[in-house]
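hey can u check if this looks right to u? its 247 residues, i copy pasted from the old doc so theres a chance i mangled smth
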Amino acid sequence: MAPDAAQAAPPPGPAPVREKVRVRFRKGGDLRLLSHHDLMRTFERLLRRAALPFASTEGFHPKPRFVFALSLPLGVIGCAEIVEIELDEQIEPAQVRDRLQAQCPPGLAILDAQRIAPNAGVHVRGLCYGISVPADRIESTRQRIALVLAGGACWVQRSKPAPRRLDIRPFLRDLRLDGATGFLEMDLWLLPAGTARPDEVLAILGLEDLLEAGAVLERVRLEMEDETPLDGALPSKQNHLFPGLNE
């Protein structure tokens, strides 16, 4: 006798709610020495302790579903890093922010949270690093910046994954130096071919010794593909020196 159709195929339950929240956070103090792997574990604990309705991966050891926009180099301060978190229930972004902030260890701060489309991907198009330049080197650095921005190729030597010579000028978006504070900002493109490293940019400016002397790098901001340019960034992704890089 054939089983009853209702018993053989019970009606499916309601589809789980899928929310995605983009969270910006600061990582500084002693926590700047925390590896990216340990940062992932820290956020997993934060989500559990905050009792947020996060979505989980499948398998024998389910974990919260979240992804960082870009890993932060060890020792660099992250001023406005990004992590995107998937939720199973609708919850106001302000609650996500406040509940995560209440569980943060010293050195970690939740800056803001905003709801984004569930199918939005994590795509960074620009990033900016900053460092303080000594007062007695501000003028020479300003002159060097003008030469670099007005010039052509900026060749550096890389050893990984294989030794090669690379022109980082296509990745260099802008250089800005505040004459009053001596703070240098290095705006970079993140392209399919990669990006420039901040130590490489410092080298072409003759400032590579700053890191050796103990100066601390900051990643000032990340700019996502689905966002309007942030304050201080260029208004569009048009590159007049390298037209082939334009969208």
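Residues 230-247 have pLDDT under 50 and may be disordered.
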